[in-house]
Design a protein that fits this description.
GO terms for molecular function: histidinol-phosphatase activity; inositol monophosphate 1-phosphatase activity; metal ion binding. Pathway: Amino-acid biosynthesis; L-histidine biosynthesis; L-histidine from 5-phospho-alpha-D-ribose 1-diphosphate: step 8/9. Its cofactor is Mg(2+). By secondary structure, this protein is α+β, with helices and mostly antiparallel strands. Helix content is 37%, strand content 25%. It contains 8 helices and 15 strands. An 8-stranded mixed beta sheet has the order 4-3-5-6-7-8-9-10. Strands 12-11-13-15-14 form a 5-stranded mixed beta sheet, with helices on one face. A two-stranded antiparallel sheet has the order 1-2. The protein is globular.
């Protein structure tokens, strides 16, 4: 991107960090009361708390003040379905089940997308206070330190992460596929927050990550951060004949093709 566009996008990153951090403070401060007010969505295991809704409303209110007139797409309240122009995409609590149980691996994810492509994003962890950021064409950072995907070159020595659907039948198929993969990698992790899995790939804490069935708010910020850290990223719709139409994939460049081939052989596009 040219200098003018980068400067404009940097302003979007600043807004994303500011608003996501405010939402993270609310999420952390209200956890005690919020987890007593729990509903379900797609299944009995797919939960939403009062904090999810309150955090998303805070994000919408603050964006209306800071970036008036720009549409928002969010996990809880929905919103615009158009992808043209500038759209903000928010997951108010990515990892709600972790939040419900008191596991600290959850985050507020906020990205600005231009014509459907993420150009700026922030993932803020309420418990640790860590702030992950990405700027299209400008890099990725953790608390201001530049990120770089791992230098892994051997799949058998690589650490992989995945996630599972809330629908029982699909979760079982996903487990069967990963059962065919786990013997070909160092080990497998399932931490329960897609945005943070993608950030972990960006930091080299994971060598690869794949999951089917994510929504745009799950990957909008994290995938940008992973890509800007040098990871090979495939988003839903980009590899329908291989990983499947609903796959989100990120991996260190030295193992990306190996990992993709193993996943395809294991039948990941059939889940």
């Amino acid at each position: 991107m040219n200098g003018v566009v980068v400067a404009q996008t940097e302003a979007l990153v600043e807004v994303a960090v500011q608003v996501a951090a405010e939402a993270a403070e609310l999420v952390l401060a209200t956890r005690g009361n919020a987890v007593t007010q729990v509903d379900t969505k797609s299944s009995e295991t797919d939960v939403v708390t009062a904090a999810d809704r309150a955090a998303e409303q805070l994000v919408r209110d603050r964006l209306a003040q800071l970036r008036p007139g720009e549409p928002v797409l969010g996990e809880e309240a929905g919103g615009t379905q158009r992808l043209d122009g500038l759209v903000w995409v928010v997951d108010p609590i990515d990892g709600t089940v972790n939040y419900l149980y008191g596991l600290p691996w959850y985050a507020v994810s906020l990205a600005a997308q231009l014509d459907g492509v993420s150009v700026a994003g922030a993932v803020v962890e309420p418990v640790s206070g860590r702030v992950w950021t990405g700027l299209r064409g400008g890099g990725a950072w953790l608390d201001g330190r530049p990120l770089r995907a791992s230098a892994a070159r051997r799949l058998d020595l690589s650490l992989l992460a995945t996630g599972f659907a809330y629908a029982t039948e699909r979760r079982q198929r996903q487990a069967e596929v990963m059962g065919r993969v786990v013997g070909q990698v160092r080990d497998l992790r399932r931490n329960g927050a897609a945005s943070l899995e993608l950030c972990a790939v960006a930091a080299g804490w994971l060598d690869g990550y794949v999951e089917h069935g994510l929504n745009r708010w799950d990957w909008a910020a994290g995938a940008l951060i992973a890509e800007e850290a040098g990871a090979v990223v495939r988003l839903p719709g980009s590899d329908p004949e291989g990983l499947g139409a609903e796959a989100t994939f990120a991996a260190a460049p030295g193992i990306a093709e190996q990992l993709r081939a193993v996943l395809v052989e294991a039948g990941i596009n059939q889940v």
